[in-house]
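Researcher: I'm preparing a figure for a lab meeting and need a structural model of a single chain. I don't have an experimental structure, so a prediction will have to do for now. The sequence is pasted below. Please return the structure as C-alpha cells so I can convert it later.
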Amino acid sequence: MRTVRSGTPATNAAEVIKLPTARALKAFELLAAQPISLVGLTPIERGSLVVTAVVDAAGYEHPVSRFGDPVWHLATEVEARNRKDAEQRIVWPDDVPTALVDDAKAALYCALRRGPHGRKWSGSYVLTAGQKSILLLRHLTKLGLGSFGQVRALHLSDHIADLRRRLNPKSVYGRLAVVDLVWSMRAEVLHPLPEHPWAELGLWEACGGKEDDSGPAGRTGKTLVIPRSIQRKLFAVCEARLEEAEDLFRARDAGLITVFSKQLTAVRDAVLYLLQVTSGMRNSESTGVTNGCWRTDVRNGITYHWVRTREIKTTGGTDVDFLVPPEALRALEVLQRYALPLQTRLAQEGRWLEGLLKQGPNASGKLGNSMTIPEAVQRLNRVRSIGSHLVLGMSTSASDHLGNGSRVEVLSGGACGLQLKKLAKAAGTDWPLANHQCRRTFAYNAANSRLGRMGLVFLKWQLKHSSMSWTQLYAANPHQDHALYSEFEEEMCEARLGLLEGWAQPDSLLTGGAGKKVMQTRARVARDLEQLLKQTAETVELRSTGHAWCITGTRGCSGQGVYEPSLCAGCSQAIIDKEQGPAWQMIHLDNLRLAAITDCGPAVTEKARRALERSSRVLNDLGVQLPTDEQTQAYTTALKRA
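Model: Understood. Here is the structure written out cell by cell.
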C-alpha cells in the first residue's frame, strides 16, 4: 500500500490507498472511503472530507477538493467533455454567513454521495445546483438571515414571486434547488429549515412548472425549429466548406495557414452543424465523437450508417448509436483530418506532463509548470480522455507545453453556440442558430416527414424507407438514444394535433370514408374539445400517401392506395382534406388522360370511368374546381414534350 501524495497538507489515514487499476481516471477507493453521512462529525472533520480526487498512472490518489475549501473543483465528476474548466467549479461566496454556506455544502456533498432519496445526483447536477445556489444565498443574506434555520416559507414564496416576473419556471427551479435539497437532507445540516419550504407543494409546482403545460409537445415546443428556408442556406454553406476542405488541409500541411486558422475552424463548424441536424445529437454527444466512431451495416438489403458516441444527460455516460445519412460519414472523415494536428499536440502535452510528474515537485510543492500534483494529474487525465476527440479548438485559459498561453480543448457548449451563430451569419441570415435547435429541428422534420408534410433529402437518408417504423430501427440497433425517439413521438403527436385541430373546424371540408365520419362528429358539441383532440392525437396513427391521410393499422389495402389513388377516395380508413386538393387535380388529369385511351379493351375503359368518377367526387366534396379544358390541354401538351 502506498501513501497518497497530496497538494493539501491535511491527509487522513483513510486516504492511504492504492488502486488496483493503474490508469483509472477516478479515485474510486478514496472517494468510497469518505462517509456518506455527516451526522456526528465535528466542523474540523467535515472540513477535511474529500469531495473530489484524481488518480495518477502509478495508482496514487490525490484529493482535489475538500469540504472546507473555498472552491470545489468538480471536473472529475462531470462526464460531459464540452465544458470549460472554469465552468466546472463552485466558488463559494465569502460575503455570505458561514452557516448558510456550510449547510449548502453539506446538502450537496450528501447528494453527490448518496442522493436525497437513495439515488446519487450526478456531478453535473451538483455543479449546476451549487453554482445557482450562490444567488439564493446572497438573497437570504440581504434579508438578514444568517442560517437556513431562520428561513420561512414566506421568505421563499416572496422570492419565487419576484423571480417569476423575469424568469421561466425552469430557471426559478434551478435557483431554489439547493433549498429543496437542504429540506430533504435536514438530518445532515447544522441549521435545518423549521418548516416545509413550499407549503407542502413540490418545488416544480411552487415555481409554476405545472401552470405551463403545453400539452403533448412538452418541453420541445419551446425550442425554435429552424425554418426550411434557413436550413437550405445553412446546408449550402456547409457543403461549400466541405468542398474546399481538401485545399485547406494541403495549405495547412505546407505551413501556409495555421492549424487554428478561421478557414479550418469554419470547416469544423460546418461538420458540427451537419452532424447535429442530421442525427439529432445533443451538443455533448456531437462534441464527443472520436476517431473512427462510425460504421456501416447492411441488414435485409437496407444500408444503415451509424455514429457511436456517449450519451450523458439521461444515462450518465453510456455509448449509444445514432443513425445518420452517408453524407455525415463523409463529413466526419473531413473532421478527423482537421483534428489530427490538434490531437498530436494533445499527445505531446501528455508526454510533457508525464515528465513533470516524474521529476516531482520542488521545495514549494509545485511542479516545473507551477501546477500542483493534483492539478497536473487532473490535466493529464483530461488530455488522455480527449486525445481522440474530433471537435477540438484552442483554449486561452492556460498554457500547455508550448507556453504560449493556449492549449487544445474540446469545444465547449457555449463556444459551439457562438460558432453556430457565425455559421448562420456566413449563410447570409440573422437566424439565432443554437445547439438544441438542431435536435428539435431533426425531431420535427422526422415527425413531419413520416406524416408526409416534408421531403427534405436528408430525412430520406435517415429513415431509409418510407415504411420503416421506430420499432424496426430499434431492432436494427438496440444501442440508441431512447430520449431522441421520445422527442420524435412528441413531435409526431404535435403534428397530428395540428391536423386534428384543422379538421375540427366547422368550415373544414373533408372526404374519404373516415373524413365524412369526422364531419359527422362535428355536429356533436364536445365538453372539452381541446382535451379530446389531445387524447386523439396521442393515440391515433396518421400516415400520408401524399393524396390522403390513412388511419388504418393492419387492415385496408396494405399500401396499394399509395400507387392507386382512387382506392383512397371511398376507403373507410381515409381522410382527405382541402390541402390535398391540388394533388387530386393532378390525379383527375391523369384519369382524363387514361380515359382518352380507346384501344385497350373494355376493362381499361371501365377502370378509367370509375377512377374519373372517384376523383370528380373528391374534388366536389372538397369544393375544389375541376381542371378546365385549358388546363387539361396544357397538361397533355406538357406530357407529349416530356
